[in-house]
Amino acid sequence: MKVPFRWPLLAATAIGLAIALWAIGRAGLGDIMAAAGRLGIGGFLLLIACSFAVLGLLGAAWLTAMPDASFRRLPLFTWARTTREGASDLLPFSQIGGIVVGAWTLIGRGLPATRVYASIIVDLTTEMAAQLLFTLFGLWMLGAILLDADAMRSLRTLALIGAGVAVAVTIAFALLQVPALRFLAFLARRMLPRAEVAVDAVVAELTRYYRVRRAILASFFFNLLAWAGSAASAWLTLRLMGEHQTILHIIALESLIFVLRSAAFVVPGAIGIQEAGYILLGPIFGIGPEAAVALSLVKRARDIAIGVPALLIWQMGGVRSGLRKSA
């Protein structure tokens, strides 16, 4: 797979690793390991099970974004979303590379490229809209907590700026979908040379999809459930570590962490950004730095446990397909 913009990616990765090491040093490696150890193997397996449930919701959101797709294809879309998340978390170029890998997963199973890329645009739109609602809830909770804290005025200002950026990005993506699609097609050709994307045909298909309002609402609903489910799994993980914050506080914290990860899309896996976010925001919601960083590292271990096998299977499937075509 060709990776464009290699040196900026390497620089971003190096900076992220440096920030991650700073966060681990500030929290204390021994304390982090002790907090993670309280989770145990059983707790970690439970976290993985919760993650598969969230992937099922994300698969349903992508499936319903393609109005004429049968629900019998839910396992395929869930698998495509799994490879998409694995590539986003573990491979260079972060979320965008994951989108391309997820698309090729469906195309490789015989779905027309025009339908796949149109459904991706719809799914991304509804996912961003759901994340916006989720983020606004997190900012509202943050504002309520900091309302009487004069020392936190700068953080409140930063939160308002974050809300404005989230709204602006969502509106921009909704209005600039054709340029976004052309950029996605460019990346597909660079990263997957076999991918052929006829942008005009995808735009026509996209226009047809947007006429089916129930499909848009269903995709939004499943994406919103997935955001909530992901935050709930973080709350459960913290509970198993011995932390007892309310689920609403953890949902608010996770919504803000998701915003930071989205903003740091050029850094593979948001390395360092996620850890720094937990260090800075965790205490506001009553979570000590060691538990906050432990949660971040446990989530990364989960991503590896799910993502590496998924990408290996995906790669093996591509090799087998190539061998069959060359036979």
UniProtKB/TrEMBL annotation:
<dbReference type="InterPro" id="IPR022791">
    <property type="entry name" value="L-PG_synthase/AglD"/>
</dbReference>
<keyword id="KW-0812">Transmembrane</keyword>
<feature type="transmembrane region" description="Helical">
    <location>
        <begin position="247"/>
        <end position="271"/>
    </location>
</feature>
<feature type="transmembrane region" description="Helical">
    <location>
        <begin position="6"/>
        <end position="29"/>
    </location>
</feature>
<protein>
    <recommendedName>
        <fullName>HpnL family protein</fullName>
    </recommendedName>
</protein>
<feature type="transmembrane region" description="Helical">
    <location>
        <begin position="215"/>
        <end position="235"/>
    </location>
</feature>
<feature type="transmembrane region" description="Helical">
    <location>
        <begin position="278"/>
        <end position="298"/>
    </location>
</feature>
<dbReference type="GO" id="GO:0005886">
    <property type="term" value="C:plasma membrane"/>
</dbReference>
<keyword id="KW-1133">Transmembrane helix</keyword>
<feature type="transmembrane region" description="Helical">
    <location>
        <begin position="90"/>
        <end position="107"/>
    </location>
</feature>
<keyword id="KW-0472">Membrane</keyword>
<dbReference type="Pfam" id="PF03706">
    <property type="entry name" value="LPG_synthase_TM"/>
</dbReference>
<keyword id="KW-1003">Cell membrane</keyword>
<feature type="transmembrane region" description="Helical">
    <location>
        <begin position="128"/>
        <end position="147"/>
    </location>
</feature>
<feature type="transmembrane region" description="Helical">
    <location>
        <begin position="159"/>
        <end position="184"/>
    </location>
</feature>
<feature type="transmembrane region" description="Helical">
    <location>
        <begin position="41"/>
        <end position="65"/>
    </location>
</feature>
